[in-house]
């Protein structure tokens, strides 16, 4: 078992304490066991659909899906995959907003297991610590690699950053296309969904809120 980093433990505890953790139940399966079991179950799904698993193009699909779920699109369920976080002392005394726009965000809808495709904008006001920029993208990616609803994803990124930066002054906005809306069901190809979570001064101070929201648009 890989040990969890201190950051992963703190972020997980903060999410649990606020009721924002993804509903999960520990089953003590290793990654290899998960892949093996999903392969067997996907074989059954394809069988039931009447697909020929001896066809050379289909034969490996159960393994591919198992690998994709466990190691790729749902790997953010595993806190050993939480990114290494670099924080540096704010010796330069930055006290204005740092805003990272148009972060690529690809996730999976937990109701249909199809793609959510969008971008995130994240901002914070540096206090004691400044975070390595790419770590913001990596935190978005980590929580996106779970079955999600966009509202929870937005709040998880907010609370993770608040916990790591030890400051409430963080803002997150995500705009995305849900393929469960676009490619099935209501089949709406043009609508997008924006969700925003504001903390600290972004919530309480009108000018800061406006400055962030201007950057989102
Ligand atoms: N709030 C929220 N809803 C979502 C998200 N992703 C998908 N959904 C919605 O989850 C709902 C599930 O509704 P159901 O009626 O149980 O599922 P369904 O019969 O497939 O519904 P339709 O999509 O309307 O065909 C749908 O309205 C989806 O659009 C999300 O990130 N946030
Ligand atoms: Zn969906």
From TrEMBL:
Pfam families (alphabetical): GTP_cyclohydroI (PF01227)
Keyword Metal-binding attributed: yes
One GO biological process term: tetrahydrofolate biosynthetic process
Catalytic activity as recorded in UniProt: GTP + H2O = 7,8-dihydroneopterin 3'-triphosphate + formate + H(+)
Binding sites annotated in the UniProt record for Zn(2+): 109, 112, 180
Superkingdom: Bacteria
EC numbers, comma separated: 3.5.4.16
Protein transport listed as a keyword: no
Keywords linked to the UniProt accession: GTP-binding, Hydrolase, Metal-binding, Nucleotide-binding, One-carbon metabolism, Zinc
Annotated GO CC locations: cytoplasm
InterPro entries: GTP-CH-I_C/QueF (IPR043133), GTP-CH-I_N (IPR043134), GTP_CycHdrlase_I (IPR001474), GTP_CycHdrlase_I_CS (IPR018234), GTP_CycHdrlase_I_dom (IPR020602)
Subunit (UniProt): Homopolymer.
Protein family (similarity comment): Belongs to the GTP cyclohydrolase I family.
Name assigned to this protein: GTP cyclohydrolase 1
Taxon lineage: Bacteria, Pseudomonadati, Pseudomonadota, Gammaproteobacteria, Aeromonadales
